[in-house]
Amino acid sequence: MAAARVTFREERCKGCELCVTFCPKGIITLAKHINSMGFHPATVEDQSKCTGCATCARMCPDLVIEVEREVARVG
């Protein structure tokens, strides 16, 4: 089973919502707070539901998103 962690460079996010639109699990939303550029940055609602597919990172035009996957080893 793979565990994934998604991180956003919130201060660089312009809230374009491409990651929100293309997340197959629908777990990315825009935060209620505003970053220093005046935008609502993207955030993940529930990290435990992330599969680590990295579609969000590929869609981000500003390279704001990083996806790390950890694979559990058996034995």
TrEMBL record:
Identification of the protein by name: 2-oxoglutarate ferredoxin oxidoreductase subunit delta
Residue span(s) of domain 4Fe-4S ferredoxin-type: 4-33, 40-70
Keywords of this entry: Iron, Iron-sulfur, Metal-binding
PROSITE patterns: 4FE4S_FER_1, 4FE4S_FER_2
Keyword Iron-sulfur: yes
GO molecular function: iron-sulfur cluster binding; metal ion binding
Gene3D superfamilies in alphabetical order: 3.30.70.20
The species this protein was found in: Desulfofundulus thermosubterraneus DSM 16057
